[in-house]
Fold this sequence. Notes:
Layout: H1 7-21, H2 31-38, H3 45-54, E1 58-61, E2 67-70, H4 79-87, H5 111-126, H6 130-142, E3 158-166, H7 170-177, H8 185-202, E4 212-218, E5 222-223, E6 228-237, E7 245-256, E8 259-269, H9 281-303
Antiparallel strand pairs: 1-2, 3-8, 4-6, 5-6, 6-7, 7-8
Helix pairs in contact: 1-2, 1-3, 1-4, 1-6, 4-5, 8-9
Amino acid sequence: MRLKLSKRGDYVVRSAIALATGYDAPAPKKLRQISVEMGVPRTFVSQIMGDLVAAGIATSFFGANGGYRLTRPPAEITLLEVVEAGEGPLESDTCVLGDEPCHWESVCPLHETWSAATAAMRSELAATTLATLAERDLAIQAGTYHVVGHRKADSSVVDVTDVIVVERSVADVLERLDAGVAWLTPHLEAARADGEEILVRVGPGNQGWLAKTVAVHLGGPIPGEGVTVVPLTWEATGPSGLFPRLEGQLRLREIEAARTEIAFAGRYRPPLGRAGQALDDVVLARVARATIRSLLRRVADALEV
Length: 305
């Protein structure tokens, strides 16, 4: 038996952590921010936040400066509350072994042990607050939090890097990127289609299963010594909800006058196959490389027009 959260419970916890890390921010968190920060599908994030609001953990604000906030400080909200907002009560009112045999009508041999195990899990979740999870999240991002033996369940994510050179200055490239994502979205959609075409030929899937891009996010440029970094995140969704996601950085470096190297480094998660099956490692790497190569090639063509 694998003890893990359902996908909905996973997204509820992720969203609660996003609200906890932004608790002291001057403005509420918007749906798109939560989606980008925590990898919650854009098409599901409003439902997930609805679960947190219904549980009394979050509240919503309307208007131009609207969004979501926690109803209480993170230190006053337990992980048990958050998990049950997504999963429902963790205590069962039915027998874990079912109704048979007949001489177990009132109680079963497993009742006391199972009840004790359930109570221990509830106690541990109740002893952990959102403030603790937010602190861990920040430490993980900083690379200072390590747990021996921990392995992410999703092994389909692949690290990917690629580089192109464009005949434009860094300033020109940044100006185009700063114009927004409207011009970039069609190139991301085309690049995603190029990569997923491989899945139609050699992997699980068919044309009706492929996704459509629904969210693109470009972060503000981060200047550094000889290089400017632009965070890039996009995700797609489709009928199955098994969406591809790309998260990484564009690193801009001027190699000579009016000539810029654009390097991408990040993580790409292709969509899963039918019934959520994982991709073969060879197909996975091929899809990731094809998608990023297609994206950078199309971006270069657009920048040099």
